[in-house]
Amino acid sequence: MLKKPMNPIIKSCYLSIRGAKIHYLEAGKPRENPIILLHGASFNAQTWGQIGTLQLLAEKGYYALAIDLPGYGNSQSLSVPKEAFLLLLLEELKLQQPMIVSPSMSGSYSLPLISQYPEKVGSFVAVAPVDIPKYRQQLQGVQIPTLALWGSNDRIVPINNANLLIELMPNTQKVILKNAGHACYMRATEQFHHHLIQFFQKNEDILLQTQ
């Protein structure tokens, strides 16, 4: 797939967490319920610009931030547990109830947050994240609106994990992208974007009503 050029509306930014420089890309005007895009082990924040996700979200009126997780992309390594990173990030950026997109490896960052501090998250897009069985007990009964997005050919994180999320978190819906693998957003980008926007639009009104 051809990579799309980075758009001028995307800004490269840094913040400091516990003395480490953390890099992120920003698109759209700051507003309530921003969207945080995490990434898998083979990717970084730039991926969301290359496939057009940041640009699309900004065009749809959202405020999106693609994070280089510690030790990835242009972010320095951080000497705090993965479980604490997103909480520190939200505090530093003063973000309230963001909508979090979490593929693959980033599940080890996002699942601790939504299981321990569900009130701090507006909605959750689980793109075949790792560690769902590990947090099985903590995720039980969490009410965050959740979209479980999987590729039909995922051989790394089984689709059964999507069914487990539905079992654990009652406000979860599942979408399987046909002929896509583990990084389903790379192979089925248009379908991925369609379901992403549809999910955010559906839940945005609910979030605004509860604030």
Automatic annotation (TrEMBL):
Keyword Disulfide bond in annotation: no
Family label: Belongs to the AB hydrolase superfamily. ABHD14 family.
Chief location category: cytoplasm
Signal sequence, renumbered to the chain: none
GO-annotated cellular components: cytoplasm
Entry-linked Gene3D superfamilies: alpha/beta hydrolase
Name of the protein in question: Abhydrolase
Record-linked InterPro entries: AB_hydrolase_1, AB_hydrolase_fold
NAD is among the record's keywords: no
Localisation: Cytoplasm
Gene Ontology MF terms: hydrolase activity
Domain (AB hydrolase-1): residue spans on this chain: 33-129, 136-185
Assigned keywords, A-Z: Cytoplasm, Hydrolase
